[in-house]
Amino acid sequence: MFLARLDHPADFDAWREAARTALALHVPPEEMAFAVSEDPAPLFAEPLPDRPADAAPFNVPKAFPDVARKLICHADPERFVFAYRLLWRLQDEKKLLEIVSDPDTRRAVEMQKAVYRDSHKMKAFVRFREIEDAEGQRQYIAWFEPFHHVVELTAPFFMRRFPGMVWSILTPKRSVHWDGVEMVFAPGADPSQKPADDDMEALWLTYYASIFNPARLKVKAMQAEMPKKYWHNLPEATLIEPLIRGAEAAQRRMIETQPTLPSFRHEKQAERNDMARAASQVPAFNGFNKPPEDIEEAREQARHCKACPLWEPATQTVFGKGPADAPVIFVGEQPGDQEDLAGEPFIGPAGKVFDEALAAAGIDRSQAYVTNAVKHFKFEPRGKRRIHAKPNMGEVKVCRWWLEQERELIKPKLIVALGATAAASVLGKTVTIRDTRSKLIDLPDGTTKLLVTVHPAYILRLPDPEAQAREREAFHADMDRAKAYVPEIALG
Ligand code: URA
């Protein structure tokens, strides 16, 4: 019996090294044991020898490393040996992972599902509390109790979501710290290190109570999605029962209350004052300390967004529209007059130019996700008309949080920025169309590309018909570039 020691419960790198060595030495799975740091090891186990320098390379199906990485995160104490057994069998049974009737394959699928679910719950139920460290720096700390060893697997999600904050997530077996530059994993924490209540919690409770919609209350569905075992670490859990109790009366009040018309505040100075106030008051995560779990939840949260003053004169939030797994996201600047009234992006005159270009490139709009850098219509009233006003960078910056949620949840292969405002929001810095147009730019996540083109309204505003025709053609050529990222749909 040979023993490989691993540094921590989800130590995929050490497992992979040991598994490669064991395979090179032809150690059958029954003869292998793995133990995490100081855990007790089987009696009479010998340390695994070094890998022979002349060990022959071996192949595994492309999907296996990812499968193994997830299996290693499972709480099953046999997970390391099990993953090694799969690797061992794959040497002779190349299609093993496709044979769903095989008990090992079935077990692997179930284990991966359990890990995926746990990681998903961590994304949904981690609640940060704000604290001030000894040097007066703001930090965010969360305590979470996962079933499986999902900290390594899930931490990159939080890093992408909250890159500009200093945060830690503590769990009983493992913790992770992000200082804005580097992510460091450490041993688990003691429940006594659990952060206490804070202002953030009060904010979160207010938010939760305000988005609670009595007309949509489905207690069973809610408990299935938010199992009671997570409640003791969820601040809003204390509100759930009183809110359910009050739901019927609240629903009656909603029906009886007449809808109110949006009020209009037009003075420039008032807006400047509002903006300055908003900039200094925008709470972390646009006022939501829980990132949305899916695009529907993001849309629902955004309906209530008041992170900048544009919400007030606008009729409604115009959130993105399209499939939750669209391969391409098109980003415009902000909704126009018609979009503001209908609640859908790009349905007015600029939308027509956009639709024509998509049709010319053979892109089916229903396959794409279409959204805007700013989700509320900014305008200036002229008599009965509302004239488009360009959003300022402060507003773009505040609203960028929503675009980040859309990007994170949809994970497109390509983002097409329609105009400079959209490009600035995607990149987090201003760029010129001249410098960036039509190039495929790699975004820092390493998987998404950005294509910058003009805004369709720019084409409409060109007074010279010839220049307009030229620009339309160039815009269509950019859509042809985007087409490469949209799968063909079989017609008929
Ligand atoms: N212009 C945009 O940028 N977006 C829209 O949704 C409509 C017009």
Automatic annotation (TrEMBL):
Q: Could you mention a single GO BP entry for this protein?
A: DNA repair
Question: Which InterPro entries does this one have?
Answer: DNA_repair_put, DUF4130, UDG_Type-4/5, Ura-DNA_glyco_family4, Uracil-DNA_glycosylase-like, Uracil-DNA_glycosylase-like_sf
Residues of the Uracil-DNA glycosylase-like domain: 319-484
Against CDD domains, the record matches this protein to: UDG-F4_TTUDGA_SPO1dp_like (cd10030)
Query: What keywords sit in the KW lines?
Result: 4Fe-4S, DNA damage, DNA repair, Hydrolase, Iron, Iron-sulfur, Metal-binding, Nucleotidyltransferase, Transferase
Give the SUPFAM superfamilies listed for this entry: Uracil-DNA glycosylase-like (SSF52141)
Q: Which GO terms describe its molecular function?
A: 4 iron, 4 sulfur cluster binding; deaminated base DNA N-glycosylase activity; metal ion binding; nucleotidyltransferase activity
Q: Which domain of life is it from?
A: Bacteria
Keyword Cell wall biogenesis/degradation in annotation: no
Q: Does the keyword Transferase apply?
A: yes
The similarity annotation says: Belongs to the uracil-DNA glycosylase (UDG) superfamily. Type 4 (UDGa) family.
Give the protein's recorded name. Answer: Type-4 uracil-DNA glycosylase
- From what organism does this protein derive? Aureimonas phyllosphaerae
